[in-house]
Amino acid sequence: VPQRYLSSLFTGREEYLAKLKNYFNNPGRNMGRRLYLLYGLGGIGKTQICLKFKEEVENEVEYVFWIDASSESTITSSFKAIARNNPLFSGEEKPSAYQVLQVISRMKQI
């Protein structure tokens, strides 16, 4: 997750947070890897929703990966940041974005 901070003015968005929590914590669903795409116009609060959700669940999950899919270069940068900041990659010398994707794809839960 990028080094961004939840705004002290964050309010509302309970509907979106509830949907995220239900999606990731629903015991009726397969407990394997879960991915969620949150999209919309710039400036409507997507980042703040994600940061609030991360804050609420960070003690319940082992990994939270944030991939900025704005462009091919931001996706690559996101994968490189995951490799830099995650012990899963501590033994590898600068893994490529593809190698990071391969490791994530083999994980049972995200």
From TrEMBL:
Coiled-coil ranges (or none): none
Pfam families to which the protein is assigned, alphabetical: AAA_16
Family matches, as Gene3D superfamilies: P-loop containing nucleotide triphosphate hydrolases
Domain spans labelled Orc1-like AAA ATPase: 10-72
Superkingdom in the source lineage: Eukaryota
InterPro entries membership: AAA_16 (IPR041664), P-loop_NTPase (IPR027417)
Protein name: Orc1-like AAA ATPase domain-containing protein
